[in-house]
């Protein structure tokens, strides 16, 4: 087929806004684009070819025919472009697919409606909410519905004639209080539909209406002296308020708003979408979009505004983002600098940055799929803690003092994910009087790294402190005094909820409880605790023995210490012969020590 005569074609293209389509020699659509001025945009492909990248030059070389559709505005062009890309899937376009992999919550249209999860989007069956990119959020909603309402879970056709004919019997759900038995006509249909209406409101983000409904029910029950019912309604209000407090991401007075942020690299763009209704996050999703023609962030954002709002049924009149495309839109697009909207923007940006970093780490993991298990865990740990290097050398500190006696500390060392016991260290607390975990942590961390610096030994890749913000802060102060704060990553792990704390960050990180990286941190922490407790017990035993022998006539602390140092343990002293003792402390003292242990043995019998 002959070369495409673009000069003749360009003269026929109007200046109006619209959508253009490029065809190759087989008649297949290879690219769909939008434009504020069709002629100007299409001409740029052919008249500025020396400015194009390799991929765009390849596209232009395959164009053999151009078609276009004129629309009223650039916004209409954007809508049409979105639909055509999904319909035609041109090979040079960013792929936009009708994603049916995420589940929806369906509220059916039948008599006594059901609420269930499905991936089959059949609008004839009821009202669908979603898609839910976070299964945790979806199940939280379902669990809340179960605690607030008595919605049936069966699939019985509950027509009035079927119920009146007595075709059905109540099941276990009725007997355990999860259902009121509409299948036997035991629940009023209007009462059931009122609860379903509350479910619709919650899924739409209108939490104030269910709260008002419960409040009215509670007050009515109280007026009728039905205090148990009133308390039940109060419990439901508290449950809904608790959910709202966790789900509210900003000031409820902010109204309805959408958020879409974008960051990118050479290969892909990463976007986070949040649908906010009265301060409550109704839906959110973070996606990766592979680039095809080195598209700009503004171009990708414009296309994804339509895609994400259509996907989640967003109707807000305002959208906030980190960039503002040069595009006439039917909604207000802002880049906030201060206030609650800026907080929303920052939260969305934080999500998209973490997502991009996680994608990069996943690619790193895939690239090292043939590596050993230890490397896989360390790569995962590096990703979870956002470390710059692989934590092959980890050191963990733990304090031990029981009822304030014999304060000691322990440090364990893991290399390549395995214990390096030759590098374990015990510490007797020297500068702290009494039980003070923070001061003790400051002392031992300072002593450990002062020595490493003095001996010109390498610092670890990660320091773990057994404890929360207090212990972590004390350890950080020690690093600051040595001038190495910021050179070595340091975290604290709190025992109660296994929270990970970072310096100067008040909010903890929660790693998935099933994550191999968290299990490694727990293993290191538990090993430090075991090592410290063992040392503490030995020290208490020795202190106790010295104290006891100090009471034996003619045997003082010097003699007791000498015995412990030589024999190593109380058990070895107890089992030693008179001759062995005499060779160390003399016959007279040996007899007294031997008599002391023999008397203990007689008493035990």
Q: What would the keywords be for this entry?
A:
5-stranded mixed beta sheet; 18 strands; alpha+beta; 7-stranded mixed beta sheet; GIY-YIG endonuclease; 20 helices; Nucleotidyltransferase, domain 5; 605 residues; flat
Q: Your description of this structure?
A:
With 605 residues, the chain is an alpha+beta fold. Among the domains are: 83 residues, GIY-YIG endonuclease, CATH 3.40.1440; 111 residues, Nucleotidyltransferase, domain 5; 158 residues, 2-Layer Sandwich (Nucleotidyltransferase, domain 5); 55 residues, DNA polymerase, domain 1 (Orthogonal Bundle), CATH 1.10.150.20. The chain contains 20 helices and 18 strands. Strands 12, 13, 14, 15, 16, 17 and 18 form a 7-stranded mixed beta sheet that branches. The protein has a 5-stranded mixed beta sheet with strand order 9-8-7-10-11, sandwiched between helices. Strand 16, helix 15 and strand 17 form a beta-alpha-beta unit. The longest helix has 34 residues. It is flat. The chain starts with 5 loop residues before the first helix and ends with a helix. The model has no long low-confidence stretch (mean pLDDT 80).
What would you say about this model in short?
This protein is 47% helix and 18% strand. With 605 residues, the chain is an alpha+beta fold.
């Amino acid at each position: 087929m002959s070369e495409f005569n673009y000069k003749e074609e360009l003269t026929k293209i109007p200046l109006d806004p619209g959508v253009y389509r490029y065809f190759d020699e087989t008649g297949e659509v290879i690219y769909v684009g939008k434009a504020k001025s069709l002629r100007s945009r299409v001409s740029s492909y052919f008249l500025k070819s020396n400015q194009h990248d390799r991929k765009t030059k390849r596209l232009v070389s395959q164009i053999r025919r151009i078609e276009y559709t004129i629309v009223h505005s650039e916004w209409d062009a954007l809508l049409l472009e979105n639909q055509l890309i999904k319909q035609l899937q041109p090979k040079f376009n960013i792929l936009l697919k009708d994603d049916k992999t995420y589940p929806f919550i369906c509220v059916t249209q039948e008599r006594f409606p059901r609420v269930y999860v499905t991936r089959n989007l059949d609008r004839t069956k009821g009202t669908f909410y979603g898609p839910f990119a976070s299964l945790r959020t979806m199940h939280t909603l379902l669990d809340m519905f179960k605690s607030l309402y008595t919605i049936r879970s069966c699939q019985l056709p509950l027509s009035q004639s079927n119920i009146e004919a007595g075709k059905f019997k109540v099941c276990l759900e009725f007997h355990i209080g999860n259902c009121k038995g509409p299948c036997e006509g035991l629940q009023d249909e209007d009462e059931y539909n009122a609860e379903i209406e509350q479910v619709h409101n919650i899924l739409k983000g209108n939490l104030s209406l269910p709260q008002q409904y419960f409040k009215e029910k509670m007050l009515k029950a109280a007026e009728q002296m039905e205090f148990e019912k009133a308390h039940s309604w109060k419990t439901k209000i508290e449950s809904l308020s608790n959910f709202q407090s966790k789900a509210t991401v900003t000031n409820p007075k902010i109204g309805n708003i959408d958020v879409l942020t974008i960051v990118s690299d050479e290969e892909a763009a990463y976007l986070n979408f949040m649908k906010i209704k009265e301060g409550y996050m109704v839906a959110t999703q973070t996606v990766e979009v592979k680039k095809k023609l080195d598209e700009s962030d503004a171009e990708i954002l414009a296309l994804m505004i339509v895609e994400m709002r259509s996907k989640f049924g967003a109707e807000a009149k305002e959208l906030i983002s980190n960039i503002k495309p040069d595009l006439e839109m039917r909604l207000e697009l802002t880049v906030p600098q201060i206030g609650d909207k800026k907080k929303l923007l920052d939260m969305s940006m934080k999500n998209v940055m973490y997502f991009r970093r996680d994608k990069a780490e996943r690619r790193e993991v895939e690239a090292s799929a043939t590596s050993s298990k230890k490397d896989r865990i360390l790569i995962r740990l590096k990703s979870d803690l956002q470390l710059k290097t692989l934590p092959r050398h980890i050191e963990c500190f733990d304090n031990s003092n029981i009822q304030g006696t014999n304060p000691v500390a322990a440090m364990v060392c893991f290399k390549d994910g395995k214990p390096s016991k030759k590098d374990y260290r015990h510490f007797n607390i020297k500068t702290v009087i009494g039980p003070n975990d923070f001061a003790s942590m400051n002392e031992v961390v300072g002593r450990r790294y002062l020595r490493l610096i003095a001996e010109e030994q390498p610092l670890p890749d990660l320091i773990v402190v057994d404890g929360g913000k207090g212990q972590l802060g004390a350890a950080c102060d020690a690093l600051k005094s040595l001038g190495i704060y910021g050179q070595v990553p340091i975290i604290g792990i709190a025992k109660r909820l296994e929270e990970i704390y970072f310096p100067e960050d008040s909010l903890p990180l929660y790693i998935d409880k099933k994550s191999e990286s968290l299990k490694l941190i727990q293993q290191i922490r538990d090993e430090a605790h075991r090592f410290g407790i063992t040392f503490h017990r030995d020290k208490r035993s020795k202190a106790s023995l010295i104290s006891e022998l100090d009471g034996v006539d003619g045997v003082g602390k010097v003699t007791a210490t000498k015995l412990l140092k030589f024999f190593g343990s109380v058990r070895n002293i107890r089992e030693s012969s008179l001759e062995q003792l005499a060779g160390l402390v003399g016959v007279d003292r040996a007899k007294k020590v031997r008599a002391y242990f023999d008397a203990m043995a007689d008493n035990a019998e």
